[in-house]
Amino acid sequence: MAPTLYMIQASPPVRAVLITAKAIGLDLNQKDINFFQDEHLKPHFLKLNPQHTIPTLEDEDGFAVWDSHAIMTYLVSKYAKDDSVYPQDIKKRAVVNQRLFFESGVIFFHMRNIARSLLVHCQNFINEDDRDGMIEGFGLLEKLLEGKKWAAGDFVSLADYSLISSVGTAVTIIPVDSEEYPNLTAWMKRCEELPEYAANAKGLKEAAEMLKLRLTRK
Ligand SMILES: N[C@@H](CCC(=O)N[C@@H](CS)C(=O)NCC(=O)O)C(=O)O
Questions:
Q1: Which atom of ligand 1 is nearest to the CA of 10?
Q2: Cα of 138 to ligand 1 centre, how many Å?
Q3: Is residue 163 part of a domain?
């Protein structure tokens, strides 16, 4: 039976998992969680994931795991035909992992703060600290990409899937100048051309529309 992914399309970490599943040719049973009705806080969901975050994955025998990075590495380890997007080679894997933790601790940290302030607290502006933090994150990624085609080097990996889901969302409201960030801009374009990127498109559009709508509210 296909693993079940509890999700909403607009969420960047959900989209990172969807890109991964598409890349490895895995069908997921996609189950929408209604945030606006607090479905993630209902007992049946809390039993699966007491941290009440999406994405959450449920696989056979009631096995549950959450956090997109943990889900992505689990799915590849269990279901992928080869290790290309998450190499067994210890050093290559260490670099992929570093980028995944960078996404989690730096880029998504700021993206989540921004999304919360706009969508949960109904602000119509981005807090200066969050904007500065995100811009600093863009700058670090620009440096990480120096001389590299992909986030972890010369191969497409889970690092690209994770980073493009949140960076691609962030730039819809904090645009980056291609002259100031040439590596970042070229990398985003390369990611958009990957066939598996299609799994990101619908949710990205939804997220961008929601965020921009809040920013234009009086
Ligand atoms: N680091 C986590 C972040 C997950 C996360 O914060 N998801 C948000 C939606 S984008 C969420 O579930 N928020 C609801 C909550 O925290 O109660 C991941 O990569 O999965």
A1: 10
A2: 21
A3: yes
